[in-house]
Design a protein that fits this description.
alpha/beta; about 10% strand
């Protein structure tokens, strides 16, 4: 499995690299919180609608123990997508580093912090 670290992913986003960042969690989880710029793709049929086989793709889910990004990685690579990496730390690792997140819970969390 080809992995990407949190720092590598942050650098790619900061540089504005041309790649697809894919959140493999459920629709509910994606709406709650995701890394800015993420696409929500939680099934293989959606992948073919939004991704080209030549795309550079990074998949992630909630954390290192979550299987969703592992499954997404295997489905994509076995379907002929050649440039796929997995961010194993997921949204929890990203947020723990203090990096920005988007979503309904992200906004609620920011508001709660502001009132403290």
């Amino acid at each position: 499995m080809n992995l990407i670290t949190r720092e590598e992913l942050k650098e790619k986003l900061d540089r504005g690299d041309d790649f697809k960042l894919v959140c493999a969690l459920s629709e509910w989880a994606y709406r709650a919180k995701h890394i800015p710029g993420s696409l929500h793709i939680d099934n293989p049929k959606k992948a073919t609608e939004f991704l080209e086989k030549s795309d550079e793709i990074v998949v992630y889910c909630s954390d290192v123990h979550c299987p969703a990004s592992k499954y997404a990685y295997h489905i994509l690579t076995s379907s002929g997508y050649e440039n796929v990496r997995r961010y194993a730390g997921g949204i929890i690792d990203w947020e723990d580093a203090g990096y920005p997140v988007e979503g309904e819970w992200a906004e609620a969390g920011a508001e709660a912090e502001a009132t403290r």
